[in-house]
Amino acid sequence: MSEELDISYLLQVAQNPDVATRLELARQMASFFQDPDANPQDRVSLTPVLMELANDSVVTVRQSLAGGLAHTPHAPQSIVRTLVCDTDEICLPLLRHTPALPESDLKAVVASGKLSRQMAVASRTGITPVLGRMIIETRSTDLCLRLLNNPEFQPDSRFLERVLELHADDADIIEALSDRPNVPLHIRVLLISSASHNLSSVQSLKGWLEKGQEESVLGGVKEQAIVRLMCDTPTDADDIRLTVKALHKVNALTASLIMRATVAGLIHFVEAALQALTGIPEKRIRTLLRGRARLGSRAVYMRAGLPLGAYRIFRFALDIFEQRDCVLTGVSAEQFGKLVVERVVTDADDLPITERRALLELLAKLAGDEARGIAKQLYENMPVAA
Q: Of 24, 76, 223, 284, which sees the most CB atoms within 10 A?
């Protein structure tokens, strides 16, 4: 087309009473705007023709135009905005795909409260963190699920944390989060916590457990799963810090969880947990727990609210961690737990037999599968009194 484009004939065609003629014009106009090599000035000149078609009285004409312009970045904003204000059958393909609308327009659609249009926006590629946050702040479960199931959307950890805050009790949201790839460790830990809470509610309602049992039984399952996940996931200091912070925030940084982690050899996690519970700087805690004198380990332990009866297990685990240099030698959680059980048998002979039995009974609850079985067998075979 020339720079001196005369569009009068095309405007007459756009007003032709024959619907088939206008449909063909809409198809040709959309094809022209899809062409990346088309003359930019011609695009500007043809905008009035597009506007005529965008306001056509026949739905199929407007629908054809909207579908043809949905994927091109060269569609005039004025035309796209006109079509976006049309009925759902016209606007939804545009809202799902058009690169021609600025984010401010997409935010306006989300703010409109019209679910079908919000869902179309949530299905788009290239959703920014700001727009994603606005979508979940609608607190619509359906809308949040659509966004989480959008494979093109890559949320950061703060976004995922907010989703959990808003939908912690929604099983569908928990499942969608669990299915996403590359979810950070602390979010996965929170997912385990949320999932076990939901399971507790379901089982309580169905009468699978007696009243009062749900929390203790399922709490143990949850904590075992969290410890197993941390053992199986490569972590750095930031991962541990975020995991401790997340658990502390939801009151899940319990004494039993810390002791399970201790028996599994997750000493760096334990140190970070003690820092969160006591407020003592982590570097200072490390010195108190691992220093030769170890004069402060008991004080830190008690200040964190950990059970006095399990302190010897805690101390044995710290000794093993230092002596075996477990981080470097690759001692597994199961191996570490067995070493703790062995230490109770060989190095706690200064304790009355009832206290040694109590330690083995604790290990039979806290340790990993193999170590737990060994501790249980030793407990059952140990005489009740000397």
A: 223
